[in-house]
């Protein structure tokens, strides 16, 4: 994973935590819960979205999701 993009994703999580007055770990945990809900969907379109996210482990990390969505928003 590109270190610059990883740093940007980590900074985004830090900004959310600061904005909401919670810890970075709390933000990551809440993101993971939401991601697991999406990953367990039986809807074919939702499964296709989650399968399209590049990830190094078994499932995407919050940072990998942020990077992927940022690419979609930036490049269409």
TrEMBL record:
Taxonomic superkingdom: Bacteria
Descriptive protein name: Sporulation initiation factor Spo0A-like protein
Species annotation: Lacrimispora defluvii
